[in-house]
UniProtKB/TrEMBL annotation:
It comes from the Bacteria. This is muconolactone Delta-isomerase. The lineage of its organism: Bacteria, Bacillati, Actinomycetota, Actinomycetes, Micrococcales. GO terms for biological process: beta-ketoadipate pathway. Pathway: Aromatic compound metabolism; beta-ketoadipate pathway; 5-oxo-4,5-dihydro-2-furylacetate from catechol: step 3/3. The gene is catC. InterPro entries: Dimeric_a/b-barrel, MLI_dom, Muconolactone_d_Isoase. Homodecamer. Belongs to the muconolactone Delta-isomerase family.
Length: 103
């Protein structure tokens, strides 16, 4: 299943070395998720401490496990939207582009 996840980072003011350690662990974990094919894309919302990610996992329970293991999870406000394939995408994925344009 695919999910769109909005993560607002509410990390409090911490000692510099502690904040750096948490951020480093977060980057390492995100790379692990990318390597495993779970985190497909990640965007920042300009001017905010919010990121939007496209995740692909077996089900919502796996997504919860993935998100709750984020080093910054205790300080995140997270919203999740399950994604379904739009009929237009199904047409494009199942045929060649020139055929889809004629239909």
């Amino acid at each position: 299943m695919e999910f769109l996840v909005r993560q607002e980072n509410n990390l409090p003011q911490l000692p510099t070395d502690e904040a750096a350690q948490i951020k480093s662990a977060e980057r390492t974990y995100a790379q692990e998720l990318r390597d495993r094919g779970i985190l497909k894309r990640l965007w920042r919302i300009p001017g905010t401490r919010t990121a939007v990610g496209w995740y692909e996992v077996e089900d919502a329970t796996e997504l919860h496990d993935v998100l709750s293991n984020l080093p910054t999870f205790p300080w995140q406000s997270i919203t999740v939207e399950a994604l379904a394939t739009h009929p237009q995408e199904q047409v494009l994925a199942g045929s060649n582009p020139s055929k889809a344009a004629k239909e």
